[in-house]
Amino acid sequence: MTEEIIIAGFGGQGVLSMGKILAYSGIMQDQEVSWMPSYGPEMRGGTANVIVIVSDERISSPILTTFDTAIILNQQSMDKFEKSVRPGGVLLYDPNGITRHPQRKDIKIYQIEGARLAAEMGNAKIFNMVVFGAFLKIKPVVKLENVIKGLKKSLPERYHKLIPLNEDAINMGMKNVVAL
Fold first, then answer.
1. Stretch 22-43: mean pLDDT
2. Tally of CB atoms within 10 A around 24
3. How many CB atoms lie within 10 A of CB 178?
4. How far apart are CA 76 and CA 56, in angstroms?
5. How far apart are alpha carbons 139 and 157 in whole angstroms?
6. Distances in whole angstroms, Cα of residue 50 to Cα of each of 116, 117, 172
7. Alpha helix locations (H) across 121-160?
8. With DSSP H G I counted as helix, E B as strand and the rest as coil, what are the percentages for the chain, rounded to 5?
């Protein structure tokens, strides 16, 4: 099993963190992983994306132009990466701020209202974990128990008290993803 994923959105949405947690989760399952971030010079508000590969086999190159899954969190990323999903692949997106929804018929399209659900849960910062939960429901490439281990590995210890909230956000995303 090899899953090649791009996660893309604005800086500050937790794009790189989501990729890092996915990568750590794969490591916790003794899988081969690659995590390759890309972002502009802006701290927040600029575009950011990360390519994550999780595989049972050695990864020959972290450089990809097509993906099994695209997780899209803003319109610029939709415009850039929708066409990069392989036929038969998955595109998961949050509709908040999206003006042109995906149109392809040769891929599976899913929607998660991560921004709305995170706000309803009382913490906009868990947006990325709601989206991550939706991804895990669609493509369970890592087990939830390993995601929790990945959170512990990637979060500074002073934030470990937030792990239960992150787990709740993941579960919220798993319950609310919609196939289109």
1. 88
2. 21
3. 11
4. 32
5. 29
6. 23, 23, 23
7. 127-138, 144-154
8. 45, 25, 30
Structure tokens at 123: 């913490």
Helix (H, G, I), strand (E, B) or coil at 10: strand
pLDDT of residue 94: 98
Q: What are phi and psi of 68, to 5 degrees?
A: -75, -35
Phi, psi (5° rounding) for residue 141?
Answer: -75, -20
pLDDT computed for residue 15 by the predictor: 94
Separation between Cα atoms, residue 102 and residue 30, nearest integer Å: 34
Domain boundaries, given as residue ranges, for the chain: 2-179
Residue 43 binned pLDDT confidence (cut-offs 50, 70, 90): low
Would the pTM of this model clear 0.85, i.e. be above it? Answer: yes
The CATH-assigned architecture of domain 2-179 is: 3-Layer(aba) Sandwich (3.40)
What lies within 8 Å, CB to CB, of 166 at 6+ separation is 126, 129, 151
Which tokens hold the place of 103?
A: 């149109």
Q: Residues 16, 38: contact at Cβ < 8 Å?
A: no
Percent of the chain residues past pLDDT 90, beyond the cut:
88
Q: Which pLDDT belongs to residue 11?
A: 83
